[in-house]
Design brief:
- The protein is mainly beta and 153 residues long.
- The chain has a single domain, classed as Hypothetical upf0131 protein ytfp.
- The protein has 2 helices and 9 strands.
- Strands 1, 2, 5, 6, 7, 8 and 9 form a 7-stranded mixed sheet that branches. It has a two-stranded antiparallel sheet with strand order 3-4.
- The longest helix is centred in the middle third of the chain and has 13 residues, at 73-85.
- The radius of gyration is 16 Å and the shape is globular.
Length: 153
């Protein structure tokens, strides 16, 4: 039987990132690098400081910082199931290598990757009630309109 070696691009911003508690699911996968979403249409909340939730936002309008992986079909399917069961949905997003963000270059020189990212489909008032979900020592850092979850356990 022929082994499936196809790889799928997965953009992760939370517990699947390096040094975070679920990164063991990606330890045998290809780490491409640090990336940021092209679009600035997201908000992020940390649910009781245990995992981040990204959602479309009219209030925050941030880019999301994360990591790009190329994962096997088997692992991709397992991560899809895990995220679906947690209430997240997959969307295709354009992302740019974080190394290129602050370097001066012409717009036409920008190259974007497309990858799968998970978000909460309905923010259910998260924009208005963000303090309910986050403890005082927030695990979310926002600088220059770019948001990153940095919690490490």
């Amino acid at each position: 039987m022929k082994k499936d070696i196809r790889r799928h691009k997965l953009f992760v911003y939370g517990t699947l990132k390096k040094k975070h508690r679920l990164n063991s699911l990606l330890v045998d996968e290809v780490f491409v690098g640090d990336y940021v979403t092209k679009d600035s249409c997201y908000g992020m909340s940390s649910y009781l400081d245990s995992f981040p939730m990204v959602y479309h936002s009219d209030v925050h309008n941030h880019q999301i910082i994360g990591e790009l992986y190329e994962v096997t079909t088997l692992n991709y399917d397992q991560i899809l199931a895990m995220e679906y069961n947690a209430g997240f949905i997959p969307i295709q997003v354009d992302i740019e290598n974080a190394e290129h963000i602050d370097k001066p270059h012409r717009v036409m020189d920008k190259t974007y990757e497309t990858a799968l990212m998970f978000l909460i489909p309905d923010s259910n008032g998260i924009d208005k009630d963000v303090n309910y979900y986050q403890k005082q020592n927030s695990t979310i850092i926002t600088k220059d309109n770019k948001t990153e979850w940095i919690h490490v356990r």
